[in-house]
Every structure is written in C-alpha cells, then in structure tokens.
Amino acid sequence: MKIGIVSRSDMDEAVNLTEKILKHLSEEEVFLAPEIAKVLGEEGTPVEEMDIDSLVTIGGDGTVLRNLQKLPEIPILGINMGGRGFLADVNPEEATSVIDKMINGELGLRERERLSIKISEGWNSIALNEGVVRSEEPSGIISFEVFMDGELVEKIEGDGLIVSTPTGSTAYALASGGPILHPDVEAFLAVTLSTYRPRAFPLVFPMSSELKVKLLEPNKKAYVTVDGQITKELKGGDVIIFERSESSAKFYEWKGKFYEKIGEKL
C-alpha cells in the first residue's frame, strides 16, 4: 500500500510518533509531507502531488481539513494528538496497530457528505464541515436574504450565517446554537450568527435543496470561509450558493459508535 503521512511539525509528540510510524512502515511505500520531512531529515512530497492509496494525518481535525482540500478523493486515517478529534479519532498509543489493520483491509470506510459552495461570479469550493458567510469587520452587521429552492426564507441582519454538513454540526454550528445531526441524516443545517430575532433559524433542510445567500448592502464587504481554511472576499450583491457536493470525503472507520463519540468529545 502507498501511504502518505502529514504531521504537525511543531509538536514534539507528533514528530516522535511520525518517526515511529515511519520505521514501522519500512516495508511500505511511504510519502512524507515537506514540513515533517524536513524535521526528520527525509525527502518530502507536496501533499497534492502524492500518488497514494491512503493518507495518515497526525495532529487534529484541523490537520485533516487542511489536507482533505489537497487530496479530496483519498481515504484518510486521522491520529489525534490531543484535541477533541471527531475526524482524527485514533489515539497515538494505538496508531501502529490501527495502521496495520488499514493495510490489511480490516477497517471499513465511511463516506461523509460535503457541501458545494459557489459565488455568482464563478468562484467555488467544497466543505466537509461548513461554509460561513460573515462581515469583514469583527462583530460587524451585514444584511442578507436567504432563499431555499428559489423561495425567500428570511431577510436577516446580523453577524452572518453558518451552513453546515452533518459532520460539521458538532463544530462551529453547535457552538452557535445549532442541533447535532447524525452522519446518516441526509440534511444540511443553517445557523445564524448573532442575528436579531431570527424566525426560521436554526434550519435543517434536505440535501436535495439549494440554499442561496444574497448580500444586500453594496458598499459593505463580507467573507465566505470554508472549513476554517479558505477565505474568499465578497461584495454587495454577491449570491453565495450552497448545495450538495457531487463528491464525498472518505474516512477509515475506527471508533464507529456515533453517540459514544459524542459523549466522549463534547
């Protein structure tokens, strides 16, 4: 099996674990991301150029999200180095044994739905967790309209709007007052940010629907942020379109009990 490894290079524990895993995989074809390769004195390969079957991330959920953007079609095994770890849920002490199970085909794969995010001018991206539309200024208020399948849902004034997948419902959306969605629920979630008397939100809507956000103030800048990793500037009149992506993200299943994980992580 051809395996890529991405690791936090600023954490001694992550560096040491990467070195241990690299020795353990001496008989496999392994590619290291440039940052961790430099620390270990090895040859590195940019993640987006890796020709691999599986990607092992060593860090937290942020490490998973950053590298999913670079290799969206490759199954990921996430090793958690101390955070909550909803996506990276393998403990460091069990890392080598779980990797062995991955190589031997003993781990199942779970596909997680993603969210396509487009701007009317042509820019587009894909989120595993969420897309967030918010003011350029901290705590700034923006005015926008939300449409569902062409029907006006509500005109809103506030800090912004989160549109989340079931995977992202335990992240920013939950912290902002949204409900938790089971990964098997075929629905997305929209949660407003610090809005005055929202009537229709939080809103759970079918994955078959298309949600549009139209910015109303011509001279007020805003941003859309994807998974906390990618940010695009918006201008008044822009329409941001959220809909189900044609491609899902693939993760190796290790701790598959959803409600047990909720109890442990939250």
Which tags fit this structure?
266 residues, Rossmann fold, 6-stranded antiparallel beta sheet, 18% helix, 2 domains, alpha+beta, 18 strands, 6 helices, elongated, Tumour Suppressor Smad4
Summarize the structure.
With 266 residues, the protein is of the alpha+beta class. Helix content is 18%, strand content 36%.
Structure, explained:
- 18% of the residues lie in helices and 36% in strands.
- It has two domains: 2-112 and 248-265, Rossmann fold; 115-244, Probable inorganic polyphosphate/atp-NAD kinase, domain 2 (Tumour Suppressor Smad4), CATH 2.60.200.
- The strands form four sheets. The protein has a six-stranded antiparallel β-sheet with strand order 7-6-17-14-9-10, with no helix packed on it. A six-stranded antiparallel β-sheet has the order 13-12-11-8-15-16, with no helix packed on it.
- It has helices spanning 12-24, 34-40, 61-68, 95-103, 172-175, 258-265, and strands at 2-7, 29-32, 54-59, 76-80, 109-112, 115-119, 124-127, 130-135, 142-148, 151-158, 160-164, 187-193, 203-206, 211-215, 222-226, 230-234, 239-244, 249-252.
- α1 links the parallel β1 and β2.
- It is of the alpha+beta class and 266 residues long.
- The protein has six helices and 18 strands.
Task: Supply the CATH architecture of the largest domain.
Answer: Sandwich
Q: What would the average pLDDT be, to the nearest integer?
A: 94
- Strand fraction equals 35-45%
Helix run count: 6
Biggest beta-sheet profile: 6 strands, antiparallel
The CATH class label of the largest domain is Mainly Beta
The total beta strand count reads: 18
CA-CA gap between termini: 35 Å
Work out the count of structural domains: 2
Global outline: elongated
Spatial order of the strands forming the largest sheet:
7-6-17-14-9-10
CATH superfamily (homologous) name of the largest domain:
Probable inorganic polyphosphate/atp-NAD kinase, domain 2
Quaternary structure state of the chains depicted: single chain
Helix and strand succession? EHEHEHEHEEEEEEEHEEEEEEEH
- Secondary structure class reads alpha+beta
